[in-house]
Design a protein that fits this description.
With 448 residues, the protein is of the alpha/beta class. The protein is built from 19 helices and twelve strands. Strand 3 (61-64) and strand 4 (67-71) form a beta hairpin. The radius of gyration is 27 Å and the shape is globular.
Length: 448
């Protein structure tokens, strides 16, 4: 409860944002003005005592659960959260996911799922696609991730064209293979000159079309071809994009605007030799893509994150950069929340819940105004249609598996320690050490 004095403090602007956020999380907020409701100041014993002791210098006064949190100033959001937690504001008070993903209730035709590596983009995109398809809407799920694992999730091979999922009549999946796309793009650009130019010149052209830039441009052309193909788009009610980790996605989604502008202002777009050659022929395609991405009636970006400080910061950064590109229709999905009401005496689980709470308490301001949905941590594997259905069908109660913990201990009994690994690396003297693995497994942490 907030008791305010007769004046207006500029800090109220920030407090108003904080109170709106608290209200969205289910916290009851009341504001009482001295000029409008003086009787409530008199009727509250704590506020009345403050006023008698300090006069109007006691205002503003902020009470949480009938205890004074601050007097003569406005508290920060962090202070409010700490005062409310753990009894009132916890991860479980964030908007939970209903019987289906909440972002699908009024979904746009194009849905982009992006976020830090390992946060669960593919799983959430796949579950969303399945939900839409089983509600009778013709749905295409496309992966633009070079390390796509759609094949694993659906237990079938996703081709470079829409591939029907046999047991779900309204669902198709598709992989954009950037390496294959780059090879096709390179051949398209070089083939017309074979036999017309010396072999050495052709090899030089092939070399120019063999870099990472060519791979990115080729994948980009495949992506824009989907959005700009009216016949293909007309086949589906929804097209979902399971994108690469954030950095790749930002480049992918910024290229239509950048290149459309480049082609408008540059006289070299159609003639320069190298990966940018031939861009002009796709100019109309890029412009259609720009229009589709910027149209909030057509496109929504789902910023997927875990309840971790680094993942939420990256989601905020991505959301800000995408908004700057005109892609303003965004939602935040916090994946893998361990509910606080799960009974546990396990110190690791308790620490995990605490980390979640602290991360959400520091939710970047750029994310606070977005619609937020949460997906709980589940105890089952997330591959196959049955697992995807279970993800979007409550209840999701995790359960303790003592036998599983014992089996894990047995399976890792012969493994070495991290200290041992570090000592072995150091013993080899100077050299190159490469850390590799799937997104989100902790490569950067291990390397650091």
């Amino acid at each position: 409860m907030l008791f305010c004095g007769p004046g207006v403090d500029p800090a109220l602007l920030q407090l108003a944002r904080d109170l709106r956020w608290l209200t969205a999380q289910g916290v009851t907020v009341q504001r009482v003005g001295l000029a409008q409701e003086p009787q409530r100041f008199v009727g509250n014993p704590r506020v009345s005592a403050l006023m008698h002791e300090f006069g109007d210098q006691a205002l503003p006064a902020v009470l949480v659960n009938d205890s004074i949190l601050a007097q003569g100033r406005y508290p920060s959001r962090q202070e409010l959260i700490e005062a409310l937690a753990p009894t009132t504001l916890t991860p479980s008070t964030l908007t939970p996911m209903p019987t289906g993903p909440s972002w699908l209730a009024q979904s746009t035709r194009f849905l982009f799922f992006t976020g830090k590596g390992g946060v669960g983009k593919t799983t959430i995109a796949s579950a969303s696609a399945l939900q839409l398809a089983e509600s009778g809407q013709r749905t295409l799920l496309v992966s633009t991730d070079p390390a796509s694992n759609l094949d694993d999730v659906f237990a079938m091979r996703a081709e470079s064209v829409p591939t029907p999922v046999p047991t779900v009549p309204a669902l198709w999946i598709m992989n954009i293979d950037p390496v294959a796309a780059a090879a096709a793009y390179r051949e398209k650009m070089v083939a017309p000159y074979r036999g017309l130019l010396p072999d050495a010149a052709v090899r030089g052209m092939e070399e120019q079309f063999s870099g990472a830039c060519t791979v990115e441009i080729a994948a980009f052309n495949e992506f824009t071809a989907l959005l700009a193909d009216p016949a293909l788009v007309a086949r589906f009610d929804h097209i979902l994009f399971d994108t690469a980790p954030t950095g790749h996605t930002l480049r992918l989604l910024s290229l239509p605007t950048a290149w459309s502008s480049f082609l408008t202002t540059s006289s070299n777009g159609a003639s320069c030799l190298g990966p940018l050659a031939g861009l002009a022929e796709h100019q109309a395609q890029y412009q259609l893509t720009v229009a589709a991405l910027a149209d909030s009636a057509q496109t929504t970006v789902l910023l997927v994150s875990r309840a971790e400080v680094s993942a939420l910061r990256e989601a905020a950064r991505a959301g800000g950069e995408l908004a700057a590109l005109g892609i303003a229709q965004q939602q935040l999905v916090v994946n893998g929340l361990l509910p606080e009401d799960v009974p546990t005496t396990d110190p690791t689980a308790t620490a995990y819940i605490s980390r979640q709470r602290n991360a959400l308490a520091q939710l970047p301001s750029a994310l606070q105004a977005l619609p937020i949905a949460t997906i709980p941590l589940v105890a089952h594997d997330l591959t196959g249609l049955a697992a995807l259905r279970a993800l979007v069908t409550p209840p999701h109660a995790p359960h303790a598996d003592e036998a599983g913990a014992s089996e894990l201990a047995d399976a890792t009994a012969g493994f070495g320690s991290f200290d041992g690994l570090a000592e072995a690396v150091a013993a080899d003297g100077r050299g190159v050490v490469m850390t590799m693995g799937k997104g989100g497994v902790g490569k950067t942490t291990v390397a650091a």
